[in-house]
Amino acid sequence: MSGHEGAPPQTRLDFNEPPGPGPDPGVGVRLEVDEEGVGWILFDQPGRPVNTLSTPVMERLRALLDEAVRRNVKGLVFASDKNDMFVAGAEVEEIAGIADPATGMQKSAYGQAILETVSRFAPPTAALITGPCLGGGFELALACTVRLAENRDSVRIGLPEVKLGIIPGFGGTQRLPRRIGLRGALDLILAGKTVPARSAFRRGMVDALIPPGLGRQVAREVILGRRRLEPARPSRVDRVIAAVPWLRNFVLSRARKVLAAKVRPDHYPAPFLALDAVVAGFGRDTTAAFRREAEIEGQALVTPAKDSLVWLFRASNRAKEPEGLPLDRARPVRRLAVVGAGVMGGGIAWLAAEKGLPIRVKDVQAGALEHALATAAGNWARAVRRRRLTPRDRSRRVEQLSFTLDTTGFRHVDLVFEAVVENLDVKRKVLAELEGVVREDAVLASNTSSLSITDIARDAGHPERVVGLHFFNPVHRMPLVEVIAGARSAAEAVATAYRTALDLGKTPILVQDGPGFLVNRLLAFYLGEALHLFEKGADPERTDGILTDFGMPMGPFELLDQIGLDVAEKVTHVMAAAFGDRLPSQAVLARLAGEGHLGRKSGRGFYAYERDRRQAATLEADRARGAPARWDPPREDVLDRLLLPMVNEAARCLEEGVVHRPLDVDLGMVMGTGFPPFRGGLLRYADARGVGAIVERLERLADGTGRFRPSEALRSRSGGFYRP
């Protein structure tokens, strides 16, 4: 067996003394030596669903490596005693607490030194991957002689650190390029990608793919030399790239250009810092390269983006424990159904099948059912072509889907999604039909985006089982789901809906019934003010540019074109009825929609579209119909007129109990609208500016109108939304 093909040259790294306690046998890492002399370092942190590489765990690992040497083991296998788990990465709470570069550099260097000890361990070492192997967990695996992955659905492998605003700082930026080649390593590191076991094997990230349950047997055979296994090597092209400086520099330069076209370094510095660390691995010895990686990690750990991204990660975890909702009262959901095979219903059906849940899809038109099946099958076919799925995986997913023109089989489902047109009478009719065929304990969940759940359930025989589950479009990309409790929704039904959203891999937030719920209510003020600027002569392209420069994924006018101006116009009636003159007039939507300017789907809205690609703004045509001359308000005015009314309204939502926690607002805005993650969310942005300053700014903007007047709810938050 070849030991370290493509690994960095062996070199001595001095241990830095770690901050925190010394070795602790109770941290959930132990060494066992079997009857054949194979050492097993087993991770099983007590009371936690995942294993992480906290400082106590790393210190314990260091002690166990010394013990393994003393016991003269024939080799070491790193594995987990938790089902469907390896090591999920570093300890996020520790990452959050690092406030100065020196501490960050010290922790990085300490982790590097321990993993270099693994790399220099004289007998062979193997990582047995049976679940998530992320960040520091994969860096540990990279330091081993070989990496073995069981072919389980739970296995995800990669270095997602940049998504937390940091870099792979335990040697990952140095070892991965040498293991799989520069091009593949950059693809993974700069985007923070994680891939399933089969894809990891094809990329050379793991050296063997093993049937589930056979990992320990194979690992022992590899360690004892009974099974020959050559570790994966970079391709010949990648070896040439690594060896030829001008070719290597070309690849690195191109990667920097591609990265700069996708993200800005002042918004997301981590990918650029990670690239700098990869570059540092060439042209200097290993010790110097590791030292530079640690220095760069220290820089990344104290950026505002890291603070925001780590905070969002922790907030997403807190979403699994909604305030005031007893999830232990959720009923098991094993079979689903959806009524309506349109864009949203088809997306929900695809998602359920993707997660392995059987779902029955009903529509009144056979063509809609055929389109839903074709869309789902097309998504999976593309995944097969890209080698993200096997044909067998695709077949298993398709088998979860069944289609019907009536309610046959609905007696067996535990939860039904209603995803028909946004019309109150139609939804009530569908609900009445469902109540006649489903079990008495089945939950009925409406996917409405603006209609009241209480109103939808008004005539229901059992309104207590009617809830809202508002998915965002497109379902396969948008992580947020609003779980809406109507006035008569039972806690068990809401908890069941919430648990189902979690099981579908979404981030849910608990929302009380009300116009627009949370996200669309706040968006109404954002989009309404954008339309008001347009009516006064502001250029939509300039306005959109200001908002994308702020960090939004798209500006308000491109968003309206994506939603559809006819759809947006219908929603304005609901919002105007609820909020009156707090919202500006949005008559322009009815005018444009009446002229056939529906947005992207019609090829013309605020922008023209050709082959679904955005072209120039259409403001000139609008001016020809008598709109005001162009007006370019200052950038700061545009931002404040669009963003601050959302802050004002969010304070009202908290006061009214629409949501219970500021973090629900921030998760909703980041995951439902794309509010810049590097800013942490709408209310963290407000706290960074200072709520008092925002109140003063709104008072100046009000200038005799009621629209911008700061609410008492906002004034009461003068110390900040997240004050202790």
Account of the 3D structure:
The protein folds into four domains: 25-311, 2-enoyl-CoA Hydratase, Chain A, domain 1 (Alpha-Beta Complex); 327-512, 3-Layer(aba) Sandwich (Rossmann fold); 519-545 and 552-634, Orthogonal Bundle (N-(1-d-carboxylethyl)-l-norvaline Dehydrogenase, domain 2); 636-715, Orthogonal Bundle (N-(1-d-carboxylethyl)-l-norvaline Dehydrogenase, domain 2). Helices cover 47% and strands 12% of the residues. The chain contains 30 helices and 19 strands. It has an eight-stranded mixed sheet, with helices on both faces. Strands 1-2-3-4-6-9 form a six-stranded mixed sheet, sandwiched between helices. The longest helix is centred in the C-terminal third of the chain and has 22 residues, at 635-656. Mean pLDDT is 91; it is low at 1-23.
List the helices and strands and how they pair.
Layout lengths: L28 E5 L4 E6 L11 H16 L4 E6 L11 H6 L3 H19 L5 E5 L3 E2 L1 H8 L2 E5 L5 E3 L13 H9 L1 H10 L2 E3 H7 L4 E3 L4 H9 L12 H8 L1 H18 L7 H11 L5 H15 L3 H15 L17 E4 L3 H12 L4 E4 L3 H20 L5 H8 L2 E4 L10 E4 L5 H12 L7 E4 L6 H4 L9 E6 L8 E6 L5 H13 L3 E6 L6 H17 L4 H11 L5 H8 L1 H15 L7 H8 L12 E4 L2 E5 L1 H6 L10 H22 L5 H12 L8 H8 L1 H12 L9 H4 L9
Parallel strand pairs: 2-3, 3-4, 4-6, 5-7, 6-9, 10-11, 10-13, 11-12, 13-14, 14-15, 16-17
Antiparallel strand pairs: 1-2, 7-8, 15-16, 18-19
